[in-house]
């Protein structure tokens, strides 16, 4: 069972290894478990190093919301070997936290637009 790695664990500072094509099938289960853990921890994103796996794999759901009955609507996305290829626009600031650094939220400035390239778990390219 996966658990969130908490700072100052060294794995959180290491550059994660790229995911090879032959690893994709074995990461499906990991990605599902990461999504479950992300929701359980009330997060909107989780990277593989945060569960002790030094791989370039992230699970993200920035679209979570409650429906009219108060149930959480989930729309997780998994990205393999993600790379931000473009960033532009006025920087916007918002408070951000990290599941690996519990209880801390700080204001972060980020560009208002980015383009990310990655693969899905079938090895298909995404932009």
Concise overview:
This protein is mainly beta and 127 residues long.
Can you offer a commentary on this structure?
With 127 residues, this protein is mainly β. 13% of the residues lie in helices and 43% in strands. It is built from one helix and seven strands, in the order αβββββββ. It has one helix at 24-40, and strands at residues 45-47, 57-60, 65-66, 72-73, 77-98, 101-119, 125-126. Strands 1-2-5-6-7 form a five-stranded antiparallel sheet. Strand 3 (65-66) and strand 4 (72-73) form a beta hairpin. The longest helix is centred in the N-terminal third of the chain and has 17 residues, at 24-40. The N and C termini lie far apart (31 Å). The mean pLDDT is 95.
The overall strand count is 7
Distance between the termini: 31 Å
- Our Rg estimate from Cα atoms comes to 15 Å
Count every helix, treating DSSP H or I runs of 4 or more residues as helices: 1
Low confidence ranges? none
Mean pLDDT: 95
Helix/strand order, N-terminal first: HEEEEEEE
